[in-house]
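Why predict the complex rather than its parts? Because the way molecules touch one another can change local conformation, and only a joint prediction can capture that. The input here totals 306 residues.
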Amino acid sequence: MDLFISKYFNKIDKKGRISLPSSFRNVLPKANRNEIILYKSIKSSSIEGCGVGRLKEIAKRINNLDFFSEDYDDFSTSIFSEIVTTNVDKEGRFLIPEELKLYAGIKTEAAFFGQGHFFQIWEPKQGLKNTEDSRRRLLKEKKSLRMMLTQQK
Amino acid sequence: MDLFISKYFNKIDKKGRISLPSSFRNVLPKANRNEIILYKSIKSSSIEGCGVGRLKEIAKRINNLDFFSEDYDDFSTSIFSEIVTTNVDKEGRFLIPEELKLYAGIKTEAAFFGQGHFFQIWEPKQGLKNTEDSRRRLLKEKKSLRMMLTQQK
DNA sequence: TGGGATTATATGGGCGTCAATGGGTATATG
DNA sequence: CATATACCCATTGACGCCCATATAATCCCA
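Output of the joint prediction:
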């Protein structure tokens, strides 16, 4: 499986380390399995993460913008300077930077939510609540949900 | 990772030295890891920097402007004549020229902001404010920032 | 097929290494 | 000769690597 799926609740130890769920590690390309990128989610108080490969895609896109435009700087600043790379140790653990932990309200435990091509890290309770909320929103529009699930390709 | 990513806040010591963040040093080609170039940003009161190899890329971008336009001369002059090269010592530190420090309002501390293929050096508070401002501008066009981050392939 | 054995995962902790920083001294350069 | 700058060494704290353990999952063979 090459997608981030399911959810996991892991602990942060005294040194600040937390295990990246094993199934998530397996999604990362064997080449760069010891490095991930993290950034603040745009739409929620959670952290989003993925493998470094994705970053190169983003870099390419930004590079195609007009170098002398204001947009270029805005994108470049908001993305490159806000993204952090983190090393995953041999045991599959990594450190969540303090600033990101603050942003997401994470203290001693964190929840990983698979999102397909990326994943989110939440303060456990907030994460569960978010899942409920989004499911509730979806069910209000059952029709569109059914369409999304059944309409293949 | 071969991109300048994330942000770092380092101190300037009595001798005027400041550490280039370790992850930034690793972006520089092993051959010229002890030399960087610095110049005043055209668009903000910050210093921009990169490895010497990037000069060619800058030249190309300027060359792509209309040769007979006023912009061409302005950019060409503003950038090329203002570029300075600086040596990075064995411990990874370098000196920011006085004129550039003045331009950016830097005194005892500086913030490094990754910008992909180059980086910016800011007076810490101004740098943080700039990040907020540019993010605010982008969030007005939420869709485009999300596309930049999530678009596949 | 059941139950013991092997493997994997999450977690804990010791310790060496590296990054950021400080300072002394040599060297260069005008 | 005076000032600036590079090299060398030292310190501190953070982080990566190694080893260890407990629990869970898987295997495997009688």
